[in-house]
Amino acid sequence: MSVQSLDISRRRFVASAGLAATAVCLVPHRLFGDEESLVLASRKAGETANITVQALRRNISALIGSGGNIAVLPGDDGKLIIDSGFLGTRGKIVEALSSLSPDPVKHLVNTHWHFDHTDGNEWMHSAGATITAHENTRKHLSTSTRVEDWNFTFPPSPAGAIPTDVFNADKTLHLNGATVALKYYGSSHTDGDVSAYFIQADVLHTGDTWWNGYYPFIDYSTGGSLDGMIRAAEANVARVTDKTVVIPGHGPVGGKAEMIEYRDTLATIRDRVAALKKEGKSVNEIVAAKPTATYDAKWGTGFVNGEFFTKLVYKGVG
Ligand SMILES: [Zn+2]
Fold it and tell me: How far is the CA of 169 from the centre of ligand 1 (A)?
């Protein structure tokens, strides 16, 4: 990337930074009449979402605003992209990608199967991308998959959207002069979550194992677990330094300090809910006790509010 385009990226980012908070998947939960419309409304919001480009290090950029955050590394091997966002933002993603370099899209990695991270798979594949993902991500995209907590059943994805380069634990990519370590978390947000770590640049994309400033969703229907989510948060903290730039699945780019706060928030709420459940309280009684109250102003403004998160935690504790 030229110095000039870096400057343009930065200016664009600064100019629209305030819009990042309105990213598609962060539409407040209370706006939806029921969980089914959460999926539909999120996709619809994708049509009006703004994409911001944030230049990070060594030519790596983050695209913020189309559902899950996207990382891009252009170069002679073709663009490497982490997550494909919503189909409704295709035009804006194409525009953002073109602003970075003329290289074609050649390599796409999915951090997990969720629609806000994979809706763009088919068009990116048709543009020339090979799709890499954990084998469980391929499994969920290949079949009809229901998410109970969204009250929504996703049909099988079109053939072009399904990852063809799958792995089981870890995989290393060597592209555009970078070494990119893909690492499987085990059961966490789903059963197919992987991170992508750009080693030389010290830039990590955590997928949805980290939500910066928002309560996370935990997808129990496809193998997610609360303890796994907290284990993943601990693993993320342990592997970064104060210098690592970290792209979360949702929310602004951040680093170790914010990841520690997130981990501690999850652990504290888990302990509060577990204690109430142990006393024999029902889920409704626990929601009424507002165990997240001290955190809601900061963490509950996305599509997982305090009540929804309390219900998710209740399901996940003994
Ligand atoms: Zn997700």
Answer: 19
Does the reported pTM lie above 0.85? yes
Tell me, in angstroms, the distance from the centre of ligand 1 to residue 38's CA: 13
Give, to the nearest 10 degrees, the angle between helix 3-16 and helix 90-100: 140
For ligand 1, the distance from its centroid to the CA atom of residue 61, given in whole angstroms, is 21
Is residue 152 within 8 A of residue 146, CB to CB? The reply is: yes
The alpha carbon torsion through 296, 305, 215, 195 (nearest 10 deg) reads -160
Residues around ion ligand 1, judged by CB within 5 A, are 114, 208
Beta strands across the sheet bearing 203-205 = 170-175, 178-184, 194-198, 203-205, 245-247
Q: Which residue has the tokens 């780019």?
A: 253
Helix (H) or strand (E) holding 84: none
| Tens of pLDDT, residues 280-316 | 999 999 999 999 999 999 999 988 999 999 999 999 9
In tens, the pLDDT along 215-230 reads 999 999 999 999 999 9
